[in-house]
Amino acid sequence: MSAARRPVRAAGFTLLPVILAMSLIAAIAFLLNRDNGVNAGMIAGRSDLDRARYAAEAGLQAVNFVIQGAGCGGSYPGSSNPVTNNNFGGAAYSAYSKKTSTLNLFSTGSYNGASVTLTRAVYVYQPPMTIRVRPGASGQPPGNDTYLDSGSPDRNFGGEPDLKLSSSNYQSLLKFDLSAFPTGSRAIPWYDGAMLQPGAKLSLYQTGTGPATSAQVNAQLITQSWVAGTKLGGTNPDGATWTTYDANATLAWPSPRYAPVPVASTPYINALNVWVEWDLTNAAAAWLSGVYPNNGIWLVGSDATIGNTAYVSSNNTTAVDTNGKPAPPKLTLNTLLPCGATAPPSASDTATATAPVTLPAQADTYITANTANAAYVKNYGVDTNMYVGEVGTSPNLEQRMLLKFDVSGIPPGKIITSATLRLYLNQVVSGASATKSLDAYALTQWFAEGTSQSSGNIYGATWPSRDFGFAWTTWGGTYDATHKYATGRDESTGNSPLPGSFNGGWVTWDLTALAQGWVDGVIVNNGLLVKSNPTDSTYSVKFVTDENNSAGGSHRPQLVVVYQ
Asked: At CA 158, angle to CA 533 and CA 175, rounded to 5?
């Protein structure tokens, strides 16, 4: 019996799936390794480009260092004599400069076959110089400043001789024209041998002050262009008001009006006739570089303790400080100007005004509306004292002073630097604790001082008449009620209005604008009227007249004028 045959398997075919699978794995591995190699090559190439770029940046810095060191008169590396470094961390660079309309730097960095070329425009600067911008000075642009009054939101004060500030209702705006500075100019702080000076410093001369403790005055960058205007507070504005940035009522200030963070702050100084300064280096840098439009700055008190404060405005172009230096606003810049650029003119800080001229009163008297004893029809022209105030609850008990000064000796065409009315208060008759606002206005009709002393024939000014037979158009003295020129100030402290604690001494009024109008002939010199503000409590105060010989006559009225 033969043995049974076992089935024969095709053993060789059993390996085919395995071989195919292994081949697929090998192919995938090859592709993966290939992609990894490509990625590694790309990364290496990217790294080479970055290294080349870093080298090119270093080349720009190196050639700029050489150029800045050479200054305006030196020779700069050119394409034929570049600044090179062949082992900058394994990379290399070659850099040079080329002068076209600007100075351009070129730098090529290379590493491991990769190459990057960079270019940059730079300025080389002249030695630092100080340039003073003071609007209205010789060779300087006109002024552009004003103040706004929330209590009179529809009025413009662009023509006023003062800039006002208070926590309650006044805020000031200023702009300095920097268009004469060449492109590329920079404002930089510098050390003057004693202290670090700011790159740009705003200086305002403070002539009026109110009580304050630890307040700050903040300078804010204005967000909108604006027009200063020329008005003295009257209606029909031709410039910025509290509500608008120009005369048109539809041109409302945007919100916000100024940048929320102050660009500079300075402590409030409760003092009279002092310079107040703000460091505007950052603002000037932004304006000169074009990073921020030059719309000027807005001055804002930091808290509610600042009383009525006044600074000289650019309209008062010839005002001087106590040292005889010009007192209008000024911006002092410590600047770098590009090589070859022409510096804008710098305003002189030397005064050219004449010595003060003291004018005596040509006429001084007072009128009273006290109908209780018919005093309102009496003349007091030769009295040795004159009175002002509200001495009762009725307007019929008011007293007003009339004065006139002869300014004909001042040559026509002269600029009035300052005109200060000085009157000596020798008694507080009543209302000792009252605040006393003594306001000065221009008379619009002539008057006669008179020769009476409260009795006898009536020749001269009275409440209803400006002289015998000549009535006032408005009883009590016809005056321009639309413009109050000044409020009386305690000369020793600068307090205005006069506080209840004031009981005697010199009282002053700044009549610069009025005196200039008299000299120029645009305001007829009929004299001035001083009256109490109706918002005050009742009081009466007494001043010395030109007929008074007390203190050797040294207390008589005077107008102190400085002109050039």
From this structure: 130
Distance CA 253, CA 246 (A): 9
Residue among 409, 415, 404 nearest 520 (CA): 415
Q: How far apart are the first and last CA of the chain?
A: 154
Q: Are 233 and 160 in contact (CB under 8 A)?
A: yes
Phi, psi of 174 (to 5 degrees): -140, 145
**Which amino acid is located at 485 in the chain?**
Y
The Cα 137–Cα 114 span in angstroms is 60
With vertex at residue 97, the alpha carbon angle to CA 95 and CA 100, rounded to the nearest 5 degrees, is 150
Q: Looking at residue 42, what is its pLDDT?
A: 43
- Label the pairing between strands 216-221 and 309-312: unpaired
Token pair for 548: 């008074």
**Helix, strand, coil shares of the chain as percentages rounded to 5?**
15, 35, 50
Which single residue is written with the structure tokens 């967000």?
223
Give the SS3 label for residue 36. helix
In this structure, of 4-8, 156-160, 188-192, 452-456, the range with the lowest mean pLDDT score is: 4-8
Residues 6+ apart with CB under 8 A from 240: 146, 148, 156, 158, 173, 226, 227, 228, 229, 246
Run of H or E including 122: strand 114-122
Model confidence over 298-348: pLDDT tens digits? 999 887 678 888 999 999 887 888 887 889 999 999 999 999 899 999 988
Q: Which two tokens stand for residue 384?
A: 């040795």
Peptide bond into 256 cis (omega under 30): yes
Tokens 């591995």 identify what position? 29
Beta strands in 168-273 (DSSP E): 170-174, 186-187, 190-191, 196-197, 200-208, 216-221, 264-267
Q: Label residue 427 exposed, middle or buried (CB < 10 Å: 0-12, 13-18, 19+).
A: middle
Question: For the chain, which residues make up each domain, given as ranges?
Answer: 33-122, 129-336, 357-563
483, with CB counted inside 10 A (0-12, 13-18, 19+), is middle
CA separation (Å) from 110 to 58, 93, 200, 355, 509? 12, 6, 43, 73, 76
Other CB atoms closer than 10 Å to residue 248's CB: what's the count? 10
- Polymer length of the chain: 564
Encoded tokens for 402: 């009339």
Lowest-confidence segment of 66-75, 243-252, 452-461 by average pLDDT: 452-461
Q: Residues near 162 by Cβ (< 8 Å), separated by ≥ 6?
A: 147, 207, 208, 310, 311, 312, 313, 316, 510
Q: Which two tokens stand for residue 365?
A: 């008297």
* E-state strands within 247-356: 264-267, 274-279, 297-301, 309-312, 330-336
CA torsion 519→405→540→483, rounded to 10°? Answer: -10
Q: What span, in angstroms and rounded, lies between the C-alpha atoms of 469 and 269?
A: 52
Any idea what the Cα angle at residue 135 is, between residues 131 and 138, rounded to 5°? 75
d(CA 511, CA 277): 26
